[in-house]
Design brief:
CATH class of the largest domain: Alpha Beta
CATH topology of the largest domain: Rossmann fold
Distance between the termini: 71 Å
Radius of gyration: 25 Å
Order of helices and strands: HHHEHEEHEEEHEHEHEEEEEHHEE
Strand order of the largest sheet: 6-7-5-8-9-10-11-15-14
CATH architecture of the largest domain: 3-Layer(aba) Sandwich
Largest sheet: 9 strands, mixed
């Protein structure tokens, strides 16, 4: 506008004001202002990306992030992405968006942590920068016996005839064998594979199919929505964030998180809080390290954290424990579906979590009104006829 100021000074006030507005609009179209980053931040980001050879990816890969990537592109802050697929990177949290910074060459966790600090200091708009840590589906799991189709011999669960709500449970896991006979009469929603970025959610690990089978068998009428975050090569926090975000966007009722992170994540906590605010119940595995150290997302207050017990109601030696664990459920040698139309036994808090997710689904299906997180947790506790009698989880309700 400075180059027009002399011209405007010779015009009548009314005309000058009108022309100034027009020129401002035109100038903003030609030279748009940065909407998400300050100019200094863009310069710092460009310098850091080139210094550490970091490519930038949009974790959520949705329309809301397009302006962000576009802005970085216009500022020449994006470097060409090469063979970075298998390299561990950094997760960046902004307001409602997440970026993934991936190095051109593999770096150690220590090196990445140092680089994360540099990005947080240099770019104030980055609310948090953290390691894209590995996801654990948490053993121990055992495929001790494979069964031909003959499931189940257990007493089937009967749902109250007063069921009035459709309930969708998001199974965020290793995918799901949708063709398994156990899901023949189970409503299924189109899932999402965060590894291959498509709706093919083939389970090449077996964990997700086992978990989904427990939920489907113990909550008749429930709808399953699978989100794949792990394949035979593993998965990372960035996969979890994409799956959580899509589940929230799909407005599911329950999230079954039979997985975990060993370290708290700012980004994941942000999405757990968002799910909580939206009325989505997150049920999460306490983990199988036999420690009192929190496992995430189970360690967050906005989740129902689940420990494991055996048939006698005793805590499994492998189950994590602590005041952050809300309830427990059976988790020893649980029989359920595995890929290729087979059945097998698996053990752990993953299986216990699936039983609790099924119980939550039954509660939601049987109530005419929407229930809050506190009301669902209270219903679980009140509906439990037993609790752990001794040990580190003494007094914890056992969900049937």
């Amino acid at each position: 506008m400075l180059k027009y100021s002399k011209i405007l000074s010779y015009l009548p006030v009314t005309l000058a004001v009108g022309l100034a507005l027009v020129l401002t609009l035109v100038d903003s179209q030609i030279h748009p202002q940065n909407e998400l980053f300050q100019t200094d931040s863009l310069k710092a980001l460009r310098t850091l990306n080139y210094q550490y050879q970091m490519s930038v990816e949009d974790i959520l890969n949705d329309e809301s992030s397009s302006p962000l990537i576009s802005e970085l592109y216009k500022a020449d802050a994006l470097i060409p992405s090469q063979n970075t697929k298998d390299n561990k990177g950094l997760v960046v949290s902004l307001e409602d968006q997440f970026l993934l910074l991936k190095p051109q060459d593999p770096l150690s966790d220590e090196e990445l942590t140092t680089i994360a600090d540099a990005y947080e200091r240099g770019v104030p708009e980055f609310m948090n920068v953290e390691l894209d840590q590995d996801v654990s589906l948490e053993g121990p799991t055992y495929d001790l016996t494979l069964y031909p189709p003959a499931y189940p011999e257990d007493k089937p669960v009967e749902l109250s005839s007063e069921s009035v709500h459709e309930v969708v449970v998001a199974v965020i896991d290793s995918g799901m064998d949708e063709g398994h006979e156990i899901f023949e009469d189970v409503p299924l929603e189109t899932g999402w594979n965060t590894i291959t970025e498509n709706s093919t959610i083939l389970d090449d690990v077996g964990h997700g199919t086992h978990i989904a089978g427990i939920i489907a068998s113990n909550a008749p009428g429930v709808t399953i929505a699978p989100y794949k975050i792990v394949d035979s090569k593993g998965g990372k926090l960035s996969n979890v964030l994409e799956a959580f975000s899509k589940a929230i966007e799909d407005d599911v009722d329950v999230v079954n998180a039979s997985f975990g992170l060993g370290t708290a994540s700012y980004a994941l906590e942000t999405l757990v809080e968002k799910a909580y605010d939206q009325g989505i119940i997150v049920v999460a595995a306490a983990g199988n390290s036999g420690k009192d150290t929190a496992f995430y997302p189970a360690g967050y207050a906005q989740t129902i954290a689940v420990g494991s017990v055996d048939a006698g109601g005793h805590k499994l030696t492998s189950s994590n424990y602590g005041s952050w664990v809300d309830v427990a459920a059976y988790g020893y040698r649980v029989k359920s579906s595995i890929p290729d139309n087979k059945y097998g036994y698996k053990t752990g808090t993953s299986q216990s979590t699936a039983f609790v997710s099924a119980a939550v689904a039954r509660i939601l299906m049987s109530n005419t009104e929407d229930l809050s997180f506190a009301e669902v947790l209270s219903a679980l506790e009140e509906g439990s006829t037993e609790s752990i009698q001794d040990g580190e989880l003494a007094g914890t309700p056992i969900v049937q």
